[in-house]
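2024-03-11 09:14:02 INFO queue: dequeued item Iron complex transport system ATP-binding protein, len=258
2024-03-11 09:14:02 INFO validating residues
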Amino acid sequence: MVTIATQGLSVALGRRPVLHDVDTRLEPGALIGVIGPNGAGKSTLVRALLGLVPATSGGVAIDGVPVAAIRRADLARRIAYLPQGQTLHWPLTVERLVALGRLPHLAPFSRIGAADLAAIDRAIAQADIGHLRGRVATELSGGERARVLLARALAVEADALIADEPLAALDPGHQLEVMALLRVQAEAGALVVAVLHDLTLAARHCDRLLLLHEGRLVADGPPDTVLTAERMAEIYGVRAWIGRLEGRRLVVPLDHHG
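2024-03-11 09:14:37 INFO prediction written
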């Protein structure tokens, strides 16, 4: 299992400070949502967790080891990453694209084995894309492509999964399915971190939320304590109704907060 911790993490992109003194500890067996307004630093945070952007101060440790000291190949086997807004350039079939998720487990010039094929089959089934298996990935709709790329990440079968906006381009039904799938991964013992914009889905499915605002971690805890009407007004600038329907927590923006 994988635990990720940050201490005093600050990041600048170019000369622009993006994250400021973020302290948190992310442990396995939980689905953790990263939320906040546009420009809050959500994507930068998850990229920093993977060592894809350097810290200007503070740092990130994976199981107590500085992320910069971990070989990229080892990190890729331990943490699967689904970035946002990926563009597909090569006309691979869906099955071959999902198979790329097994690359961290393969030695140079080695072939995919039975265990890899089984992992690919499991990922395709989990993402519910069996009917797309033989299609060319570049010809898929945006929603279909998003599910295929999620399957590629699942095929790694890593101990942790970091997904940046995994619900983008998905219709409501598939958004619910993806959140349920992430929930299953966490309940099986994985650490799952997802950048989310839909606050109702975040509130319903996540064990814990990290709320970022202007690069700072302003709240960290269960959804009931993080998502309040006061924070919706202060952070998002909206008046919101927060309540329950059929036992499910809902966050409904009503109007711009004057």
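2024-03-11 09:14:37 INFO annotate: The CA atoms of residues 160 and 214 lie 27 Å apart.
2024-03-11 09:14:38 INFO item closed
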